[in-house]
Amino acid sequence: MSASPAAPSRATDNRTWAAAAIAQLHREAARSADTHLLHMQFAGFPGIDFYFKDEAAHPTGSLKHRLARSLFLYALCNGRLREGQTVVDASSGSTAISEAWFARLLGLRFIAVMPACTAPAKIDAVRALGGHCELTADGTCTQARARDIAAGGACFLDQFGLAERATDWRGNNNIAESILGQMAGEPHPQPAWIVCGVGTGGTSATIGRYLRYRGLESQLCVAEPSGSGFVQGWRSRDPRARATRPTLIEGIGRPGVEPGFVFDVVDTVIEVEDADSIAAAWWLEDLLGRRYGGSSGTNLVACLQLAAQMRVRGETGSIVTLLCDRGERYAQTLFDRDWLAAHGIDPNRAQARLASRLRTA
Question: Domains along the chain?
Fold first, then answer.
């Protein structure tokens, strides 16, 4: 006599739900058109083409849209995320906004552990997407607090611990593959430089690995606030390195070396003063007609420095960088003159310095 079939297990039920969730994420990716690659030329740099990858065009307004999707997929495919489970992560804002959006898409509750000094518009955006913001005091480790919440049963997405492995760096329309595909028909299809900042380390690791995987001669420059944890760690290859100064530029300039920092795929690092990053962000609004955040300004300053070096050597070619997130999120901080004055930043002086660099950098 044959045995009756066993009742579906809880694991089987969750696998069915996870398969449906993964399919939903794949459909979302297919619906999202690739972000634009904006082309610019400047009279002071003849023969050098500048390209700006507009990651702010994603549905959640930043390049972290790609990361958030990858983190959810990674959690689902590793069996760590279950139907009805709360999701938590530590974030200064842009990742949290993207994660809140994907959590809502999958019908999951989301908690963002954020520094209390996070730009108010970012906090409002997470809440508008149905997320809960737990704001921490200065000096509190947001990642430790997120782990504490996860100990109670939530799924910790862990952007800082998992970003460099959650993203498929060999392809799958990652940011590096997207850039090189869009550059294929340009006058200089292999960029001399690709420039990005470092938050979790996922973007720089993906780009650096992909360039080597494809056997390309393009080099990777990391643009960071002066004295950041990545800067100190890259120089010394010391995982215990700490930042020598704080920064006002959210999303990059981590105080210490994060697990996702892959130093050996980075060819050079350029340090940028906060005032210059902010001035460049203001200049981007004049140039492109919309606002972008401070990390986009940091990238631009590094691009101009690299272009100046190419000009001195008589080189031509292309430089590609990222427009990381929407500047409207910083209306009460980086684009507020009173806030800047309170932090000792004179935008007029910084902008004059940037204009001088454009002429003589």
Answer: 33-58+170-360 (3.40.50.1100), 65-164 (3.40.50.1100)
